[in-house]
Every structure is written in structure tokens, then in C-alpha cells.
Automatic annotation (TrEMBL):
CDD domains: HTH_LacI, PBP1_LacI_sugar_binding-like. This is DNA-binding LacI/PurR family transcriptional regulator. SUPFAM superfamilies: lambda repressor-like DNA-binding domains, Periplasmic binding protein-like I. Residues 8-62 form the HTH lacI-type domain. Keywords: DNA-binding, Transcription, Transcription regulation. Pfam families: LacI, Peripla_BP_1. PANTHER family: HTH-TYPE TRANSCRIPTIONAL REGULATOR GALS, LACI-RELATED TRANSCRIPTIONAL REPRESSOR. Residues 9-52 form the HTH cro/C1-type domain. It comes from Amaricoccus macauensis.
Length: 213
């Protein structure tokens, strides 16, 4: 059987399983309109022929992407690695795949990555930015859903998933002040990162006259 330069086609799978091309398409795209017996026959033909679904062609036909872009500051950081792992699992449950890139906490590299990942035409983009100045690095006419996570942008124009670090730090300082502790040092990598900057503002609001430095 001639497989052609691109490998076995959907039509070849249909012939092997004695079904229509539309039925093969329904099975490989996860639709539940095919009876279990026929679906199993199609999957057996897919396995026997080594057929691989062409995501590029599927996207062109449907006009929809099943990719989600994810930009993180540092993949060697265990917190970000855990975030990527969890998000990848959740995306797979909804039949999406992730394109993950790291910016190495470099704003210039983040700007470059934002432009490059847009070329993939993902269905959406999740960004854990280097700092609060994300809006200055976004490409013009991004034209896709964007969610910012972890670090709060200076300009509040994005959907955001983040921890209220200021309230958390204030609660901790109140607890410590209640125990008579009057001096405290909090360490963070950079005050350009919102979660450290916001947490640093909390002691000035706590009882006992604490001040951030």
C-alpha cells in the first residue's frame, strides 16, 4: 500500500477499517457520535498503519487552535516547574497542548518570546511576567485571550490569577507583633516583582509602627 511522502492518510485508515473518512475524523478527533465497535475498528486501523493526526491541517479546516502558549520567567525554579506541570495536565484534560518558553527573567527576552509565540497562533496565552511592565512589551494587535499569573502588572488591564501578598504579609506581621516581635527582615529577589513589592508594603500597615526598608 502506497503511504506517500507524508505517511498514511485518513483515507487509507478509512479503507482499512471499511468506514467513511468522516467516521475516521470523528474518532481521531475524540467525538462520541461513533459506536464503540466501529470506533475500536478505526483505532485498530490507526495503530496498524501508524497514522498520525495532522494538527496543522485540522486547524486550517476548523480555523481553531488547540495550542495554549505559556511564558514563564525561569523553568529551573521549582515553583514555576510545578505550575507548568499542573497546567499541562489540566490543558490535556480539555484536549489542548502547551507551548512553553522561558524568559530567564530577562525583559528583553520576554518581549522577543511574546512576538515569537504569537506566530504559533495559539488559542490563548498565559504569561508569568518578569516584572510589572508587561504592557510595554506586548506586541501590537495581540488578538488572542491573555491571562497574567503570579506577578501583578503595573497596568491593571489583564485577566489575573495571583496571590494577595500584601494582605498575607500584613497578617503575618500582626501575628508577630502580637508576640512582641518588633523587628523583622523579609527577603525577596527584587522589588520590581509585584509580590515582593506588595508584601514589603504590609509592615507599614501593621501595628507596632513597623516600616519597610
Amino acid at each position: 500500500m502506497n503511504r506517500g511522502a507524508g505517511g498514511p492518510s485518513m483515507r487509507m485508515v478509512a479503507e482499512a477499517a471499511n468506514v467513511s473518512v468522516a467516521t475516521v475524523s470523528n474518532v481521531v478527533n475524540g467525538k462520541t457520535t461513533v459506536s464503540p465497535e466501529i470506533a475500536e475498528r478505526v483505532r485498530a486501523a490507526v495503530e496498524a498503519l501508524g497514522y498520525v493526526r495532522d494538527n496543522r491541517a485540522a486547524r486550517l479546516r476548523s480555523g481553531q487552535s488547540r495550542l495554549v502558549g505559556l511564558i514563564v520567567p525561569d523553568l529551573t525554579n521549582p515553583m514555576f516547574a510545578s505550575f507548568v506541570s499542573t497546567l499541562e495536565h489540566l490543558a490535556r484534560l480539555d484536549h489542548y497542548d502547551l507551548v512553553v518558553v522561558s524568559t530567564r527573567n530577562d525583559p528583553d527576552e520576554e518581549a522577543e518570546r511574546l512576538g515569537k509565540i504569537r506566530e504559533w497562533r495559539p488559542a490563548g496565552l498565559i504569561v508569568l511576567p518578569c516584572d510589572g511592565a508587561l504592557v510595554d512589551r506586548l506586541p501590537r494587535n495581540l488578538a488572542m485571550p491573555l491571562v497574567v499569573a503570579d506577578r501583578i502588572p503595573d497596568v491593571p488591564r489583564f485577566d489575573l490569577v495571583a496571590v494577595d501578598n500584601a494582605s498575607g504579609a500584613a497578617a503575618i506581621t500582626r501575628q508577630l507583633a502580637g508576640r512582641g516581635i518588633t523587628r523583622c527582615l523579609a527577603l525577596g529577589t527584587s522589588l520590581q516583582i509585584s509580590k515582593f513589592a506588595n508584601a514589603g508594603k504590609a509592615p507599614s500597615r501593621a501595628p507596632g509602627g513597623w516600616r519597610s526598608i
